[in-house]
Amino acid sequence: MGDDDNWRRFEQLAMPHLDAAYNLALWITRNADDAQDVVQDALMRAMRYMASLRLENARPWLLQIVRHTCYTWLKENRPQEKVLLDDPEDAWRDLADASSAEPPAIAIRKAEREQINAAIAALPVGYREVFVLRELEELPYHDIARIAEVPIGTVMSRLSRARGLMRAALAPIARPALRTVPRPAQAGSKP
Which of 28, 105, 122, 174 qualifies as a FRET site for 9, CA 20 to 30 Å off? Predict the structure, then answer.
């Protein structure tokens, strides 16, 4: 295949998934500028290997390249950060609280969106990538397993743990149950 054929094929198969690629990179790197750099590098890599693509569905293929590019980028640019695939005990310690002077309904929606985004961002990266691929990108388990290079059982386990952490992070704060306080007996009355 010539370069023009590869470019047309790339535009047809890979470019429609640019938003998904950016979304995954953003959630892994946690920075919009870094995500743009990673996606650009991933697209260059994908173009280089376009001739080897034997699939009709290029989305999992492209997202796998984005994932690899993210981890390579993190290793080179943020070596001090550990890439944890397991659940740290304090994953939910610093969820963001939103305060706003906006009208109440808008402020509530904004606060909920910020709380959800903070909860996703607080997930360990292995859980976060599986959660983003399934819940935000709506990929099937077998595509997620291929992208993350783990068995489907591991995808299901990580997704289950991620959902559990999300439920815990988004659960309303438990308030103690109110109980009735007996009145003190009045003088002269029989008990």
Answer: 28
- Tokens linked to 64: 């796998």
Neighbours of 138 (CB within 10 A): 8
Q: How far is CA 48 from CA 10, 62, 160, 176, in A?
A: 10, 12, 36, 60
Phi, psi of 40 (to 5 degrees): -60, -45
The domains located in the chain, with CATH, are 1-83 (1.10.1740), 84-170 (1.10.10.10)
Q: What is the pLDDT of residues 70-118, one digit of tens each?
A: 988 988 887 766 554 444 443 333 333 333 344 666 666 777 778 888 8
